[in-house]
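DATA SHEET
Item: assembly model
Revision: 1
Owner: S.N.
Input lines:
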Amino acid sequence: MSGAHATPETPEVYGLMAEFDDPDRLVEVTRDAYGRGFRQMEAYTPFPVEGLDHALGYHRNKVPRTVFAGALIGGLSGFLLQCWSAMYYYPHNIAGKPLYSWPAFIPITFETTVLGGALSAVFGMLFFNGLPKLYHPVFNAPAFALASDDRFFLCIQSRDPLFDPAETLAFLETCGPRSVSVVPY
Amino acid sequence: MADHQHDDGRPPVLAPGHTYATVTSTISDIVLTRPLDWRWAVGMGIGSSLLLVFGAAVSMLLFKGVGIWGVNAPVMWGWAIINFVWWVGIGHAGTLISAILLLLKQQWRTSINRFAEAMTLFAVACAGMFPLLHMGRPWKFFWMMPYPSTMALLPQWRSPLVWDVFAVSTYATVSALFWYVGLIPDLATLRDRAKNKWVAMIYGSLALGWRGSARHWSRYKSAYMLLAALATPLVVSVHTVVSLDFAASVIPGWHATIFPPYFVAGAIFSGFAMVVTLCVPLRAWYGLKDFITIRHLDNMAKIILATGMIVGYGYAMEFFIAWYSGNPYEEFLLLDARPFGTYSNAYRCMILCNVGIPQLLWVPAIRRNPVLLWIISIFVNIGMWLERYVIVVTSLSQDFLPSSWADYNPTIWDVATFLGTIGLFTFLLFLFVRVLPAIAVAEMRELVHEKHHEHAAAGAAVAEAHGENR
């Protein structure tokens, strides 16, 4: 909780935030920063910008396999629940149908598959994103409210080994931002 | 203006001249600055008044029992099931727009998906009321679910009615999740734009701390696309299972293999009609004609026309199979009782509303006229209600043995419950328009971005005779 705009001493500073008008410019700058060796950085945009995640060096998205696992677990538990209840727990002859009447179990298996997949998509996405998290240092950046409107931000974090308050600031200033600001913790 | 024509003669999906900021402010200001609007007050007044009627009807039902409704032997499925199927059908358009059109990369879905999804949720909530109330003891609803009960009873998995429980509850859950995931970035926009601290805190909590990070967006997009991919077969399955409630029985007029596709087409037909019914006033009252353009109305009218033709084919097929099968009960019911019997008025109105009137949509000028389109959509809503009425009532009232025939008449409480759910629907919709963004703001900004790129591409090929094509 240091003073909001104190001199950028590395431990008290979360990072440096550059503000841009144009998403395509942000992608270029991010690619440039990645090329210079910055890794601990994050971009903030009001809508998903194509290629920005790759520019940041982010390729390992775990959501799809989480959804696959969730759908598989949902489907299997739906089907096995029906088999268990119709064959072992409460076997009952209904209209002479076999106890293991698997075709009749398919609709519910399908529904539980979709349910398992959907729940794991949403909660998996939130889990990997670390949400809900109502406080985050980047909210301290001035004008960051516009990250949900029409501005595009790149934040180079102070924990990056290459981070140097003066040099990183100078680098960001050369990228043609609207502004560069210090993000306090 | 929204009526601006493009080179290919089709109106645009987004009126020209919009930037990220204008899109954000136009949509979020409807919620945050809340201009005083008498039309909203009137609509909300009607909705909440009918909601009170619903409260009275449900209280009476719980106090006296299902006997206050018109259902009796042999018509054991009366308005309750008719209304259930009608509402579930209406719900289908929302998921269709948000999921199927997303996967097909249809840009015009962007500005109508949010409130179509809201409409889906509210319609499914209304639909759910009917089976619940029809049980007689709604507080024992959990008996339908598999749970370790001391009675050692579990659902009968071979029954389509049990499938229905799973289909509709899964559908409601997945629709709610899809809607909420879509809302998260927009709730963050409202948080950031709210002037009032408490309002910002409420939206902020609901936004879960969304900060638009690129890695978050990447996972978000994956989750959203996968939800769409999962919801696409789901939307088809729900009305299929609803139709199996009928088709798996042996009642004449119900026991038909055409039922699943014909019900799904009917659901999309009625759902799009309801979207048009809601869309036309919404865009006019809230100044959203730049976002919900004539192009959207035109496209929705085409879907109504196409699905209406499928429904018409379903009617024709029912006739044909009744004759071709040689089954005397089917022949009697479909070739005699429905078109000429006690309920022939309902049947003829149904044909007029669902097959006759939508033919006007072949004319482009009618498709692009909001007022005419709105009137046609009302006819379709009525027609689709009548379709379910005809299916349920005619088949049950005159089945195999004339000694068991009886006519069906709804009571005032049937009407009150139905009007009550319309009140619930209206109330929730007006509340929604007031407290949440009715158009997906983040997706609209993305659309603006795509349009910029298309313009840039078109600018590069400026020698081409045709500019942009969408």
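QC remark: The two ends of chain B are 16 Å apart (CA to CA).
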